[in-house]
Specification:
alpha+beta; five-stranded antiparallel β-sheet
Length: 568
Amino acid sequence: MDIDPISLEVMWQRLVTIADEIDTATIRTSFSTIVGESHDFGCAILDGSGSGLAQAQWSPPQFCTMLPRTAKAMFERFPIHTLREGDVLITNDPWIGSTHLPDYNLISPVFHQGRVAAFLGTVAHVSDVGGHLGDLEASDMFMEGTRVMPNLFYRADKVDPIIEEFIAANCRVPEMVLGDLHAIVGTHRIGARRLQEFMDDYDLGDLTHLSSAILSRSEGALREAIEALPDGEVRYELTADGYLEPFTLKLALEIRGSDIHMDFTGSSPQQGHSAINAAFNISYSTAVYPIKCMLVPRIPNNDGLVRPLHITAPEGSIVNCTFPAPVQARAKVIKHIPPLIFGALTPLLPGETIAAAGGIFPFHFVGEDERFPKFAVHMLPHGGLGATRDADGLLPAAYPHNSTVTPTEIIELQCPAVMIRKEIIPDTGGSGRRRGGPGQEITLRCTAKRPVLLTIRPDLMKYPAPGLEGGGSGAPGGVLLNGERVERFVPIPWHPGDEITLLVPGGGGFGDPRQREGERILEDVVLGLVSAEMARETYGLKLDVAPDTLRLGAIREHVARQVERGHG
């Protein structure tokens, strides 16, 4: 079947729309804040062999790049020809799935004309999987919760009672966990109907030819973009906080014709005392993402885009840990992979890279209170984004993945906490010709009548987000409990009246700060993003009026006066 470009685009976008509908249904039918409010899940459509074909636009790209790898591993235990309509495969194994136990992977076959034509896949972070409540301190994966190896969650539209009981019996909030999992199965039923309608509309027996066209054209576009780059090897490294000790990531990136080879040899070994190790699946998918963003940003994510990319990491390293290493907080490592790759490629693609972001400070409350049933409430706040050559870093936003921030109202309705402060922190974005995005302060007070357990996973407290091309680092992060700095992050007993403050870091800057335009500096001062002191000492701008008397409308006039006096 020869598909003309216009028809291909229409059909392709319709697949993305179907994935988007599954995504929306997941939010509307979810039971937990981590799925429904934080959007910590991803939805993908796979072809009949398990290759990634389309994903929901809000889905984290790492999840949807991993799902085809997970699906194909599950098919080794449950071959495609043995599956029946209404079956649903499930696993949360960190070396098969999304690399830590809270991420459950569900795969459903879509039948058409009596045979498997496609698959629907969802990865979702559930509220609890048992184990200890701390994210960071563990000596192996077994401390972190219960593991479900690839199995049938549903058999011909009926839930397997043994699997359901096992999941429910090994978590603190079974109604939330099973509610989310069953809701996802329901969204797959919606997606299956939409795909069957799609194939009927185009008189398709399956998606084989359409998949071939999407994957091959995507691969061709990426290979063409790679071929435009000069052959050669670049190296880059960075050091990050880790937890009890820092770690280093090293990358050798080689461009060879239309292929890119990335080798993490030399990176720190896996750690046995901290749960920050990353299994290869998550490192692989996180390394794919920056290349796709830089070279083919307008092509929807699919498996054709991974074919020219070859990624290796030594077994036993912190980016390819071996079973049963602790992996609960693997985000502490993988969030540094994109800035590692962007740093390596900045000399080759100066207009396409981005400085490091201020990271993610996940936290959650678990407990009971007479005003609430058992609760497990999550929030995923982020720091400021890094700057690019042509743009300042954004205000706090999710990166390098998609998630949303649980609204204050939801937190206060579902657990005994009240938000005291949530505001941007001045002078926290890395300085540069383009400024890094600022960090934020979040302060909550415990209103429970007995202690609640609070788990926090901070980052960038010792090694802040670095800038690029002479840009400054963002401000480091921090955590305060009743005004006292916290250094160890085991679960914190949060007593009535206690206040916890998160200082979420800023992103790195890009370029020499002395080249920043005066108008931009003044605008930052007026908006409260940069202090008058920083404007003077870091950027070299001398103010002859008090900052609080400035208004945005007066900036141009003020800049003109500064330029006349040689202070521009």
